[in-house]
């Protein structure tokens, strides 16, 4: 049976960079489930479908053909065979994804996709409900946190590199709103799994965080 290590945490707590490096160190595949919600949301926007209609959104997730591929040491996300990685963090996608991710039918279908991917091979999976809902029996659950200010700074730097015209203040404000929306939704709200190990990355580099995780991995007898 495959092992799934879960990493949950809010936006820009370091899940993707830490999760990807950690997975490479232990030889597991890396799956960022936020990318699944983002890929479905992108499809809905590009096809002018209604983001307010749960059944329409659910149909998209029922047929979602999303693939994760490692190319030259970085992860690329494909939708229907097309590389959509660069589009996943466009502001219009980021704006609608919490609305779409809150639909219970969308979450149920997404859960099926995530469980299937994790059952096929050893996986490091990041998201909001991986340790609580998707793989509650995981032998190692990590919960990453960081101060809102440092998370907004990280996100701002990423967006600036992509030449997106946005201020740090706006990034912080929108991030806090999204955190709240993810935490108060009825369908599997974002919360720390009771049995997760919390790592605060505010003052840690990616490498330092991964080192802590490698220690936990060994201590749990998973290596
Ligand atoms: O981690 P991220 O910012 O890429 O996540 C995008 C959105 O998807 C965010 O609103 C939270 C939601 N999400 C979720 O509800 N459950 C997950 N397992 C992963 C992401």
Taking the sheet with the most strands, its summary is: 5 strands, parallel
The overall pLDDT, averaged over residues, is 94
CATH class equals Alpha Beta
What is the alpha-carbon Rg in Å? 17 Å
From the 3D structure, determine the CATH topology.
Rossmann fold
Mind telling me the CATH superfamily name?
A: P-loop containing nucleotide triphosphate hydrolases
The counted number of beta strands is 8
Shape: globular
Query: How are the strands of the largest sheet arranged?
Result: 2-6-1-7-8
Q: Which features characterize this protein?
A:
9 helices; 3-stranded antiparallel β-sheet; 8 strands; binds 2'-deoxycytidine-5'-monophosphate
Q: How are the elements arranged and paired?
A:
Layout: E1 4-8, H1 15-26, E2 29-32, H2 33-46, H3 54-62, E3 66-71, E4 74-79, E5 82-83, H4 91-101, H5 104-120, E6 123-127, H6 130-134, E7 141-145, H7 148-161, H8 168-184, E8 197-200, H9 206-219
Parallel strand pairs: 1-6, 1-7, 2-6, 7-8
Antiparallel strand pairs: 3-4, 4-5
Helix pairs in contact: 1-9, 2-4, 3-5, 7-8
Bound molecules: 2'-deoxycytidine-5'-monophosphate.
